[in-house]
Design brief:
The complex is a heterodimer. Chain A is mainly beta. Chain A is 0% helix and 60% strand. Chain A has no helices and 11 strands. In chain A, strands 2, 4, 5, 9, 10 and 11 form a 6-stranded mixed β-sheet that branches. Chain A has a 5-stranded antiparallel β-sheet with strand order 1-3-8-7-6, with no helix packed on it. Chain B is globular and about 40 Å long. The chains are: A mainly beta, B mainly beta.
């Protein structure tokens, strides 16, 4: 069974600051996803990372993948309140998907 | 564009009752998935389907059954509800499972078993 660990589990940060969320996984994977979930809502796709060294950016969020280290990062630049949400990474191997436990991000004005 | 539609949105069941959670997508996606999300946790895959007539188990299939008679619909059946099945259930779909296409999620069904 593939294990996916995210840290930190909870993150409180001030507006304007930078921070990184880490996603480690235990075995070889085909691809890695990042999702955002607002309280009581569904999941919204942020990024799909397919290969070693892949980097994708959208607004204040940037995701990267290091398949050799089995590590993905989600970097937040100059955080704003609207980024407050829970962020999940998910690792896929074949048709099986494994989610991390999520990072609950709160951005404080 | 409706995307992935789940019904019902909320349901309370008694132990031992059965029910079917409905999921429909209008994007002509081949792949469909059922997940459960327990409080404060990530999602766990219950079952998935790569096309009509084809289903397979995910990480936590016990206590559930699925069928896929059409491309659009992928219902999840609970036969004998147990308190451990209290959770939020999400259905998702994607055009193909091995590509750069993300999964599209429904709004979820919040199920309580008492």
């Amino acid at each position: 069974e593939l294990k996916v660990e995210q840290n930190p589990l909870f993150l409180s940060m001030q507006e304007g600051k930078n921070y990184t969320i880490y996603c480690n996984y235990s075995t070889t994977s085909d691809r890695l996803y990042w999702y955002r979930q607002d309280p009581g809502k569904s999941l919204e796709s942020l990024f799909v990372l397919l290969s070693n060294g892949a980097v994708k950016q959208e607004g204040r969020l940037m995701a990267s993948l290091d398949t050799k280290a089995r590590l993905s990062t989600l970097h937040i630049t100059a955080a704003v309140h609207d980024l407050s949400a829970t962020y999940f990474c998910a690792v896929a191997t074949g048709n099986q998907f494994y989610f991390g436990t999520g990072t609950s991000l709160t951005v404080i004005p | 564009n409706a995307g992935v539609t789940q019904t019902p949105k909320f349901r309370i069941l008694k132990i031992g009752q059965s029910m079917t959670l409905q999921c429909a997508q209008d994007m002509n996606h081949n792949y469909m998935y059922w997940y459960r999300q327990d409080p404060g946790m990530g999602l766990k895959l219950i079952y998935y389907s790569v096309g009509a007539g084809i289903t397979d188990k995910g990480e936590v299939p016990n206590g559930y059954n699925v069928s896929r008679s059409t491309t659009e619909d992928f219902p999840l059946r609970l036969e004998l509800a147990a308190p451990s099945q209290t959770s939020v259930y999400f259905c998702a779909s994607s055009y193909t499972g091995i590509s750069n296409q993300p999964q599209h999620f429904g709004d979820g069904t919040r199920l309580s078993i008492l």
